[in-house]
Design a protein that fits this description.
CATH architecture of the largest domain in chain A: 3-Layer(bba) Sandwich
Order of helices and strands of chain B: HHEEEEEHEEHEHEEHEHEEEHEEHEEE
Number of helices of chain B: 9
Distance between the termini of chain B: 47 Å
CATH topology of the largest domain in chain B: Rossmann fold
Oligomer: heterodimer
CATH superfamily of the largest domain in chain B: Nucleotide-binding domain of ferredoxin-NADP reductase (FNR) module
Helix content of chain B: 10-25%
CATH topology of the largest domain in chain A: FAD/NAD(P)-binding domain
Structural class of chain B: alpha/beta
CATH class of the largest domain in chain B: Alpha Beta
Radius of gyration of chain B: 26 Å
Radius of gyration of chain A: 23 Å
Number of strands of chain B: 19
Shape of chain B: globular
Largest interface: A-B, 76 and 60 residues
Largest sheet of chain A: 7 strands, mixed
CATH superfamily of the largest domain in chain A: FAD/NAD(P)-binding domain
Number of domains of chain B: 3
CATH architecture of the largest domain in chain B: 3-Layer(aba) Sandwich
Strand content of chain B: 25-35%
Chain lengths: ~500, ~400
């Protein structure tokens, strides 16, 4: 029987960073991937002359070379900084509510304040106060709060996190309402809610604050060659360090002796022995299907009961035979909403009704090399819960997909009216497509619904099965930066376990 | 958090209320155990990884063509979009290989898929299918896939299909789709064959053309018998223009042997048909890769090279043979489907050495950097090592 220190199930973002950190940390690691390519959603596909980015819209957490932020350090530790090239986006986004709002925000913390203050002079002081709050609460929740929690020191928390104490548990909507009167300004500032998937009334304020602050201060980024380039670079680094990978080979079972991991049974029927398993599959699948127990451990079942299934997405990938300029693109990221009522947008995500809001990302706006010369690559996205497709008979699936596509294009065409005249390639991904390629329940793209209660502030680390670790968006936030970081931190926990087991053996 | 332990977060305003909300959620929530295998089952309805098929009937179409009617011995056949193919796995003389064939039957019924197969000169699999496959024989295949189909988002309703020889298979399915589902498409089918004896489905097509105003059939024969009255010659720009009239704002589908496809592309280009109106079906690896740009001067098709598979073994192969084919002949397997460079399923990592990647390869930008190739259209122009 083949033996490894750790087996990583799934080569998504967290699986790749976990495997790479484990192998580079000295543990012998096997990476299993059911698909034929690394990346999970961090991938691309080719149609005709176009290579379409599947999922990455704006990479956060990188910072500039002069002012680096955490992801630069993590990528450096994973050995990929010399393997990939990053491209900076110069705007946060353009947000359009036809007839009411059409604003483009710069990717600069001071520039953002200046612009909003000049657009909304009556809110000038409120903006200064709000932005200061976004900055300080982000620093508090990422730097000081974890320390105070670790020390379980109330005094420390009070002294170091005054803003978090006041605003940490409030919704983004409450805090926006408290600061501003102008509804348009609130809509503009809340636009990133769709990167979390819940309307501002349901997301914790620190989450929105962190996105606004981090994207503006540390910039949004693309990766040359798309997120696939990062996935391939991580795999390369993993293999250079001696890691072994198997593609077209999913895990069939996680094998245990009692409550301790002993190995993995592969799809091909091979048993592999290991001390630790890192699962990049959904926690639901990991515990209810992969684990060789009849029932998930009681702590897991209790944890699941307060979770709710998160959103999936409907995406149209388009190759256009015109330049971004000809299409009228002035910013890579665009939010187009027919209403300022985010609750209504979210309610629509639970139906097959025409979407009232959509996003367009133009990948070759900031770097022309992302598309063939004279052409453009765009993605049209609206979030949608996967269970809306449950009742569609399979023979009606294709037609349903195309009909809904037309409605999403209608939303986007209000701002980019020429889009339909230039389509050279189209591929449509529905929540079922996400389900097929990500293997997540209901095609969820960010894991569970990211309510305040989903946060790890309300969760204990589940250690029911010794040696089994979860890495991905099902126990952490969704999105690229959070999942890259989740894999890296999970690897640290595994390395610690492996080290202490080794020491025990040596001392025995 | 356990009640007994003091939680530092209790001082955060609203934390305790939020904990209560979590407790309420737990009362009405589920442990998701009722959804066991739901994801796998949903995916299997639309995209099962493998179909188990049995030949229910073999229909002689012409001297060189048969239709194999395939029924499922497993679950229901998944729906497909007219024009799509399945990759049929076969074992011939101990070699496990596969070929993609377009489904020629209507997507309006899913009792069976028809594969219409024409003998390919110097072919390997078509000879086997035409000469040896009988009713009752069982096969594995992929589920339907491919991007050669009518996409209502941008193809419009005015459609012209240029088919050469066996390229008629996807056209038949698209045509039946129009009639069976009552679509408002105008469908002009221009069917080019070498000899009148080779013309497949012609009676059925003529009858359909008589009965449907939105279907126009044009037969073109390149090597007519003496005294033949119909249209003859090769498809060229003038003929296409004459047959179709206004060429703009019509979507052209092209499916046939590679030279036919290349000729149609050239003719449509010369008519200034924009590329967004032209859909050409992929058709296997190039037969003469050494004639293409960037084929290394130092290499010849007949060069013998060594293929090493990391940790598994090695064998000799010809530079002019697609890597996937030589792998299969030597008992190795890689997942595959389109065998034309498009689907990316046969992606393997090149550890050392170089291969020639023709334009068909459709590699990702980062594949070139990290050495990933599509083995179905990769030609090993020197000794290589790959990872399977």
């Amino acid at each position: 029987m083949k033996q490894y220190d750790a087996v990583v199930i799934g080569a998504g973002n967290a699986g790749l960073t976990a495997a790479t950190a484990l192998q580079r940390g000295g543990s012998k690691t096997l990476l299993l991937e059911r698909h034929n390519i690394p990346g999970g959603c961090a991938t691309s596909f080719v149609r005709g002359e176009y290579e379409f980015e599947v999922a990455l819209h704006q990479l956060s957490g990188l910072g500039t070379e002069d002012r680096p932020f955490i992801m630069r350090k993590i990528f450096a530790n994973l050995g990929v900084m010399d393997k990939v090239e990053f491209v900076q986006e110069h705007q946060l986004y353009r947000i359009v509510v036809p007839g009411e709002i059409d604003t483009t925000l710069p990717a600069s913390w001071s520039g953002l304040r200046r612009q909003l203050q000049s657009n909304f002079p009556s809110e000038s002081e409120n903006l200064a106060r709000f932005m200061k709050l976004c900055e300080t609460i982000t620093l508090e929740s990422f730097m000081m709060l974890p320390k105070a929690r670790k020390a379980n020191d109330e005094k420390m928390l009070k002294a170091s996190c005054p803003n978090y104490i006041k605003y940490g548990m409030r919704s983004a909507k409450e805090v926006l309402d408290e600061h501003f009167d102008d509804e348009n300004l609130k809509t503009i500032l809340a636009a990133y809610w769709c990167y979390i998937g819940l309307p501002p009334s349901e997301i914790p304020f620190p989450d929105l604050a962190a996105m606004i602050y981090a994207y503006a201060a540390f910039k949004p980024w693309h990766i040359k060659g798309g997120s696939q380039a990062m996935s391939s670079a991580l795999l390369e680094s993993f293999m250079e360090a001696g890691g072994e990978v198997r593609f077209n080979c999913g895990a069939e079972k996680i094998l245990t002796s009692g409550d301790k991991v002993r190995g993995v049974l592969t799809e091909d029927g091979e048993e592999i022995a290991c001390a630790a398993v890192v699962s990049n599959a959904s926690s639901i699948m990991t515990y209810n299907e992969l684990l060789d127990h009849d029932h998930a451990p009681i702590a897991v079942r209790e944890d699941f009961k307060s979770r709710r299934m998160g959103t999936s997405a409907f995406v149209i990938y388009m190759g256009l035979d015109c330049t971004p300029e000809e299409l009228g693109v002035t910013s890579a990221s665009n939010f187009i909403c027919n209403t300022q009522d985010e609750e209504a947008v979210h309610a629509g995500m639970l139906t097959m009704n025409a979407p009232v809001s959509g996003m367009l990302t133009c990948y070759n706006f900031d770097d022309p090399s992302f598309a063939p010369e004279g052409k453009s690559i765009v993605s049209l996205v609206c979030l949608q819960y996967g269970d809306v497709l449950n009742d569609i008979p399979e023979e009606q699936y294709a037609q349903t997909k195309y009909e809904f596509s037309e409605k999403l294009i209608d939303v986007i065409a209000q701002t980019f009216p020429k889009i339909r005249d230039h389509i050279e390639e189209v591929e449509v991904a529905t929540p079922l497509t996400m389900m097929r390629y990500l293997n997540t329940p209901d095609g969820a793209i960010y894991g569970f619904k990211q309510t305040p209660q989903d946060s790890e502030l309300f969760r204990e680390r589940i250690e029911s099965i010794s040696g089994l670790y979860m890495a991905g968006c099902w126990n952490n936030m969704g999105g690229f930066q959070p999942t890259y970081m989740a894999g890296e931190s999970t690897a640290r926990a595994v390395l610690k376990q492996l080290k202490s087991e080794k020491e025990e053996l040596e001392n025995a | 958090m356990p009640e007994s332990k003091k939680n530092v977060l209790d001082v955060v305003i609203g934390y305790q209320e939020a904990v209560k909300i979590k407790e309420e959620l737990a009362k009405t929530g589920s442990d998701f155990s009722d959804q066991k295998w739901a994801t796998a089952n949903t995916i299997a309805k639309l995209h099962p990884k493998r179909l188990t098929l049995e030949v229910s009937e073999v229909i002689d179409e012409t001297e060189s063509t048969k239709t194999f009617r395939l029924v499922s011995t497993g679950g229901p056949l998944p729906p497909f979009q007219a024009g799509q193919y399945i990759n049929l796995f076969v074992e011939i003389d101990g070699v496990q290989t596969a070929r993609p064939y377009a489904i020629s039957s209507s997507p309006a019924q899913r009792d069976y898929y028809d594969l219409t197969v024409k003998r390919v000169q110097d072919g390997f699999v078509t000879h086997y299918l035409l000469d040896h496959v009988k009713q009752g024989q069982q096969f594995l295949s992929t589920s339907p896939m491919g991007t050669f189909y009518h996409n209502p988002i941008f193809h419009g309703q005015d459609l012209v299909f240029l088919a050469g020889g066996s390229g008629i298979a996807p056209a038949m399915s698209m045509l039946k789709n129009v009639f069976d589902n009552g679509l408002a498409h105008q469908f002009h089918f221009i069917y080019a064959s070498s000899y009148i004896e080779d013309v497949i489905f012609i009676e059925e097509l003529r009858e359909l053309a008589q009965n449907h105003d939105n279907f126009k059939l044009t037969e073109v024969i390149s090597r007519p018998p003496e005294g033949y009255q119909g249209i003859t010659g090769r498809l060229n720009a003038d003929l296409i223009k004459e047959l179709v009239g206004e060429v703009h704002n019509k979507t052209f589908y092209v499916c046939g042997p590679t030279p036919f496809n290349e000729n149609c592309q050239t003719q449509l280009d010369s008519l200034d048909v924009e590329s967004r109106f032209v859909r050409i079906e992929a058709n296997g690896p190039p037969k003469n890769p050494d004639q293409l740009n960037h084929w290394p001067d130092s290499a010849s098709m007949e060069d013998e090279v060594t293929i090493t598979i990391t940790g598994k073994g090695s064998f000799k192969a010809k530079a002019g043979e697609p890597l996937l084919n030589s792998l299969e002949r030597n008992g190795y397997s890689a997942e595959n489907a389109c065998r034309s460079g498009e689907c990316s399923l046969c992606r393997v990592k090149l550890v050392s050495g170089n291969v020639f990647n023709p334009p068909e390869a459709h590699l990702r930008v980062s594949d070139k950097q990290f050495g990933w190739i599509h083995s179905c259209v990769a030609f090993p122009t020197e000794d290589i090592e790959i990872l399977l």
